[in-house]
Amino acid sequence: MQKPPQKKCDRWPKCSFFAIFDGHGGHTCADFLRDNLHQFIIRDSEFPQNPRQAIVNGFWKSEMYFLDTVEKFSAGRQNMLDRSGSCAIVTLFVDDVCYSANVGDSRAIMSCQGGQYTLALSEDHKPNEKEEH
Q: What is the enclosing helix (H) or strand (E) of 18?
């Protein structure tokens, strides 16, 4: 796994992390993300001063680590290659700021003012949408 950041933080912010991982083609990738994605994010050198970039970096590093691990585990076993994947919807609260990120077609909404209205926190990623090309 990745090492913690070299830079020390004077004040660690209050953080909460919520995520849903929707596995496709098996549960291995979703389980990996459940157990590791938050660690890749908070151990990124950009965290806690730049949570947005730490989330982007955390997703990328998680994907690279998972693919590398699957490749190493499956070396020489062509029929054993894990082909699972996962959509992900993540919400990270750092102090009083909410960050939301998604990969795939999972959605997040936030209830506001005691349920009087909702706010969309994500947009689906669909391969047939023009913006996605």
A: strand 15-24
Distance of CA 56 to the CA centre of its chain: 8
> Which residue range forms the structural domain that includes residue 57?
15-104
Mind listing the pLDDT tens digit for each residue in 24-49? 999 999 999 999 999 999 999 999 99
- Given pLDDT bands bounded at 50, 70 and 90, which one contains residue 2? very low
Question: Is residue 126, in this structure, part of any structural domain at all?
Answer: no
71/7 Cα distance (integer angstroms): 32
* Of the candidates 35, 32, 36, 60, the residue with the CA atom closest to the CA atom of residue 46: 60
pTM value? 0.80
Q: Residue 45: inside a domain, yes or no?
A: yes
Q: Indicate the pLDDT class of residue 133, thresholds 50, 70 and 90.
A: low
Count of CA atoms in the C-beta half-sphere (13 A) of 47: 25
Asked, for residue 44, whether it belongs to a domain, the answer is yes
Domain count for the chain: 1
Q: Is residue 129 part of a domain?
A: no
Q: Which runs of consecutive H residues, i.e. helices, occur in 13-80?
A: 28-42, 51-74
